[in-house]
């Protein structure tokens, strides 16, 4: 459980962040062994920053969606994401 009670509300990438820290601790802070975790965290931050920016531009408040709406927003994005 995070120390900051609002951490999950304020940081939609809290899980990815914690996994990155856990990997670093497990691997004696060898960043090379945790690149996948860092990439996942960075992708998460980019996604939610884009969501925040889009909501701000559309005048939707709060800019960062509430926790209970995030899974739906991610699922909607995954459906509309172009296939490679």
From TrEMBL:
GO cellular component: a single term:
mitochondrial intermembrane space
- List locations, semicolon-separated: Mitochondrion intermembrane space
Keywords assigned: Disulfide bond, Mitochondrion
Indicate whether GTP-binding appears among the record's keywords: no
Pfam families membership: COX6B
InterPro entries with a match to the protein in the record? COX23, COX6B-like, Cys_alpha_HP_mot_SF
For this entry, list what GO says about its biological process: mitochondrial respiratory chain complex assembly
Report if keyword Disulfide bond is assigned. Answer: yes
The family classification in the record reads: Belongs to the CHCHD7 family.
PANTHER family in the record: COILED-COIL-HELIX-COILED-COIL-HELIX DOMAIN-CONTAINING PROTEIN 7 (PTHR46811:SF1)
Q: What is this protein called?
A: Coiled-coil-helix-coiled-coil-helix domain-containing protein 7
Organism, as annotated: Drosophila navojoa
């Amino acid at each position: 459980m995070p120390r900051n009670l609002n951490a999950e509300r304020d940081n939609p990438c809290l899980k990815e962040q914690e996994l990155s820290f856990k990997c670093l601790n497990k691997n004696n802070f060898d960043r090379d062994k945790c690149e996948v975790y860092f990439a996942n965290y960075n992708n998460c931050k980019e996604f939610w920053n884009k969501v925040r920016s889009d909501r701000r531009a559309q005048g939707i408040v709060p800019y960062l969606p509430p926790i209970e709406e995030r899974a739906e927003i991610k699922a909607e994005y995954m459906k509309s994401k172009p296939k490679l």
